[in-house]
Amino acid sequence: MKKQTSQADVSLNRSLGLWSALALVVGTIIGVGIFVRQAAVINDAGSAKAALFAWLAGGLLTLAAGLTIAEIASQIPSTGGLYAYMEAIYNKFWGFLSGWMQIIVYGPAMIAALGSYLAILVLDFFHLPSFWTLPIALGSIILVGILNIFPNRYGGAFAIITTICKLVPVAALIIFGLFFGHADAFSQSVGDLHTTAGGFGVAMLATLFAFDGWILVANLGGEIKNPKKMLPRAISLGIMLVMVIYLLVSYGVLKSIGPAKIHELGTTAIPYIANQDFGVWGGKALSIGIIISIIGCMNGKIMTFPRIMYAMAEEKQLPGSKWLSYLNPKTRTPVFAIIATLIIAGLMICFTNPDRISELCIFTVYCFYVMAFVGVFLLRKRNPNQVRVFSVPLFPFTPIVAILGSLFVIISEITSDPIGVLVSLSIVAIGIPVYYFKVMRPRQATK
Questions:
Q1: Which of 105, 65, 104 is nearest to 85 (CA)?
Q2: pLDDT tens for residues 237-268?
Q3: How far apart are CA 182 and CA 161, in angstroms?
Q4: Residue 65: inside a domain
Q5: How far is CA 107 from CA 215, 362, 446, in A?
Q6: Would 295 be classed as within a structural domain?
Q7: Residues with Cβ < 8 Å from 385, sequence gap 6 or more?
């Protein structure tokens, strides 16, 4: 008789190498932000030079954050990423709240927002009626979710393929702007066109939304080969690559049509460039590249966020933990955690504005980021003699930059959107009674 595999014998498949991890970092960051945030950045910065500096500042802050987390990841290479780090550095309560926020709202909202935006682009590309918006948005997240129910090597391979594909339109924008751009971009400003510029700080904040997602590969710590070495490499190399790409794309776009035209066109600036510079068919090819970019970004998020849910369920911290911690014996993937994430995302697509919700959660994400960055100092103090596989360069300057930059984001959010901040904190606060009933009360009952 064939011996049945018990759930206790099933573990996550540690099969992802450096290229898969690097593709997930790049693919999860480069989604739609670089294509639609050009106008927002130039409007707030006020000039081409200031806009480029804003992209550079956002990239350097993200790099400082990534290098800081890379040191933590090398010491705590566990599935769950930020959730695992917060629990190990502080306690179960803070770990739970960081995970709760990500699995209940932030992760599903990001997936739902990508599905909604993908539907808009597909409708525009095929000239379909608006009736198809909801079915396409839901269908896209379901199809990518099904892919991730298979062994993780398929999701990893898909990440590599979509990352390569999404770099084609990026390369086209860069090359054309550098070599064929004719706009005198750096002698223009948009200050005389509008009076609502938010300034350099707000412009930098706009770039950080486009850089978001760099930490998600850490959620796969239990599935990456030699994570103590691979995670720091993937995070640091991935962020540096994206920073260079974003700077070159922004420069290319500015050289192509100039800041005044970008201000006028808003989020349609890049489609305009595609049709103007590459013709109708070139514009369509670029649109396909952007669609693939969104699908790749969605794949990275669907691959990573359910791992947080799985890790929390493993600790019996969630309702339905028995199911949410289930791993399929053949594929070794958290099937029900993936399904639960997709259900929440689908409900958001149907009944809410997921893009707005994901923006609201940026505030709470950065609150936990600050705590994680401080954790580097705490870990070094606790374990002064520990041999580190990876040490953050220029310590303590780099983590201090990450902390100060994150505090800037938090303060900017409080001053610009106090109502949104209260909503964000309320979402996190809902997790407190769940923590009490699922974690604290069972402990008290066993005493």
A1: 65
A2: 999 999 999 999 888 888 887 787 887 877 67
A3: 33
A4: yes
A5: 12, 11, 33
A6: yes
A7: none
Distances from the Cα of 142 to the Cαs of 117, 118, 138, in angstroms?
15, 13, 6
Classify residue 337: in a domain, yes or no.
yes
In a domain, 418, yes or no: yes
Instruction: Please choose, from the candidates 326, 233, 308, 302, the residue with its C-alpha nearest in 3D space to the C-alpha of residue 81.
Output: 308
Neighbours of 3 (CB within 10 A): 6
Total structural domains within the chain: 1
pLDDT at residue 198 tops 80: no
Question: Which CATH number covers residue 436?
Answer: 1.20.1740.10
Cross-strand bridge partners of residue 47: 189
Give the domain range for residue 434.
15-442
In contact, 125 and 287? CB cutoff 8 Å:
yes
Mind listing the pLDDT tens digit for each residue in 112-121?
988 988 888 8
Q: Which of 373, 377, 367, 376 is nearest to 407 (CA)?
A: 367
pTM metric for this prediction: 0.85
